[in-house]
Design goal:
The chain is an all-alpha fold. 75% of the residues lie in helices and 0% in strands.
């Protein structure tokens, strides 16, 4: 088959209207995912307080979702390369929403953590598959403005979610936060079914790397459990300041050692697996490797800020859930403006690296400045710091996936896209766990240092002294906004210092992200969709291989085997695809 005939047989490029119709279901599915998560963020301190949970429970309610999201993301990505992507996306929506609804009936922190873990499995599918499906119908050059839409939807859900969650919590109770996404999910399923039409893919024998899944899950879980529990108290009582779980106790050594052993075994299994969960050959692509490093810092900034800024507003500034949602708008405004604006600029000018560098600089600045806040810091300054962090996330998050898709072989778009998303989620998971552990340890230390102030404040409460003494002894996360003034001031100061200490952890990772982005190869964006690139690769193989085979047959009488690109040099493969774009890929959208 000739290249010309392949171009003639290729389906016409979708118009802007057709693309928007096809993306409507993906956008709404992403909105459901984000809304179901963010609507709970402002009410989480109230939820943990009502369920008698402590700071560790607070951290694990968040971490459980991030952990299963991270682990399931490469699984969804691998399945996307092997089977029907549209059906997988619909399945992810169903899993996510059913688990979210079940979480609304939680009677204990443990039940809530379990439901959130299942929720993360569906979230991993929505995060990975939306990027893969978009690559099927839109070229990287055109994808900038459409990724801006994804950024806008994420910003809308992140702004509206906390506000809606605060109103629902204050008016009807926090359980209704988990049910609000159900009608939206039904609409998303219908839209995906009726508007999203992806090219048919050849059937493949599907094999799942079970050993890789188990080893990765155990390695990450052991690491996170160790980080969450080591160096903190076991009883949770405010008066018990003994360090019962030493960082280097026998338990710590066993857990860290077990995580390292499982990680090494995971690498060995991936090298030998026919269908590896994360093909290690992807790391031969410098763009992929550096994007993964940069994504880790983005994940820490994005997830850490969403979790601990809500705590800061409620525990360090005494805000209600509704007020906390309003107070985080500056960060979401930065995310909204930067993601939509930069996406449009990428599509218009075809350049991406300057925006990523600026975004990573803003990540460094925002992370550092948030590490300086206290309970009485001028809120205008806090708003500026949040805006800078949000703008940095908006400039880097989607564009790192874009540059990886631009240089990856079309046969590996699924695992490559999910790989970047996986490490971003993993970075966020580990980051939230480390920040949560640092916050818990710092709060415990500060409570010990200010024990006399706390006792004096309690004694000044008269007949309410016994009640508040029992509340603090329970070890559950305090509801600072409901505390008497004398006691509230002390705990606002403690939590303000503790949360700023937690933000400091993200600074070195943000600096590492900046270094990685600076060294990213500045490859121009191709104008071909994944489907067109795949057809172009097949046509090139046929064009080159058939004459060679005929020549060999005439000389030896034997037909040689035809080998394809092994993936060792994905950047070069992408260049070949874009060379063909000069013949068929640069045609304008109709």
């Amino acid at each position: 088959m000739s290249a010309t005939s392949t171009d003639a047989a290729a389906p016409p490029r979708m118009s802007h209207r057709q693309v928007l119709e096809a993306l409507s279901g993906l956008l709404l599915g992403m909105f459901v995912s984000m809304l179901a998560s963010t609507v709970v963020s402002t009410s989480l301190p109230v939820i943990i307080h009502d369920l008698d949970g402590d700071q560790a429970a607070f951290t694990w309610v968040v971490t459980a979702t991030l952990l299963t999201t991270a682990i399931s993301t490469p699984i969804w990505g691998k399945l996307a390369d092997l089977t029907n992507r549209k059906v997988l996306y619909q399945l992810a929506i169903v899993i996510f929403v059913v688990a979210t609804a079940a979480a609304g009936f939680s009677q204990s922190p443990e039940m809530l953590i379990a439901c959130r873990a299942v929720q993360g499995i569906g979230a991993g599918g929505l995060a990975a598959l939306s990027q893969v499906l978009m690559a099927d119908i839109i070229s990287p050059r055109e994808r900038g403005r459409y990724m801006g839409l994804f950024g806008g939807v994420m910003a809308l859900a992140t702004i509206g979610g906390p506000l809606l969650g605060g109103v629902i919590t204050d008016a009807w109770g926090w359980r209704w936060n988990f049910f609000v996404a159900l009608p939206v999910a039904v609409v998303a399923l219908i839209l995906v079914q009726t508007t999203l039409h992806v090219p048919a893919r050849p059937r493949k024998k599907t094999t799942i790397d079970i050993a890789g899944i188990v080893l990765l899950s155990v390695a990450v879980s052991l690491l996170l459990i160790w980080v969450t529990n080591a160096g903190t108290t076991t009883t949770g009582a405010w008066e018990d300041l003994a360090n019962n779980n030493d960082w280097w106790s026998l338990t710590s050594v066993l857990m860290v050692g077990g995580a390292l052993v499982c990680a090494i075994l995971f690498v060995i299994v991936e090298l030998r697996s026919a269908e590896p969960l994360i093909p290690l050959s992807l790391f031969r692509n410098r763009t992929f490797t550096l994007s993964v490093i940069a994504s880790i810092a983005t994940g820490i900034a994005m997830f850490g800020a969403s979790v601990f800024l809500s705590q800061y507003m409620q525990l360090a500034r005494g805000a209600t859930p509704t007020e906390a949602g309003l107070m985080t708008i500056p960060m979401i405004g930065g995310l909204l403006i930067s993601s939509i604006g930069v996406g449009a600029l990428v599509t218009k000018f075809g350049t991406w690296k300057p925006y990523l560098i600026v975004g990573s600089v803003l990540l460094v600045a925002g992370s550092y400045l948030l590490s300086t806040i206290h309970y009485d810091t001028n809120f205008f300054l806090v708003s500026v710091y949040m805006f800078l962090l949000g703008a940095g996330v908006g400039m880097t998050m989607q564009n790192l996936v874009l540059v990886v898709q631009n240089t990856t072989r079309p046969e590996e778009i699924g695992v490559a896209s999910s790989g970047v998303t996986f490490f971003r989620s993993l970075g966020g998971t580990v980051g939230v766990s480390v920040m949560g552990a640092a916050l818990a340890a710092k709060v415990t230390q500060l409570v010990g240092e200010r024990k006399e102030d706390i006792q004096a404040a309690i004694m000044s409460l008269g007949d309410k002294a016994q009640y508040w003494a029992e509340q603090l002894q329970s070890g559950s996360l305090p509801k600072v906004s409901a505390m008497p003034e004398a006691l509230r001031t002390v705990f606002e100061s403690i939590y303000g210092t503790g949360i700023s200490h937690a933000f400091l952890i993200g600074v070195p990772f943000a600096v590492l992200s900046l270094v990685a982005i600076v060294f990213l190869p500045n490859k121009p964006l191709t104008t071909m969709t994944t489907t067109e690139r795949l057809e172009a690769s097949e046509a090139d193989v046929a064009t080159v291989s058939v004459p060679e085979a005929m020549a060999t047959l005439g000389a030896t009488g034997a037909v040689p085997s035809v080998s394809t690109d092994s993936g060792a040099d994905a950047d070069t493969a992408a260049d070949r695809d874009d060379t063909r774009a000069g013949r068929g890929g640069d045609r304008p959208s109709r």
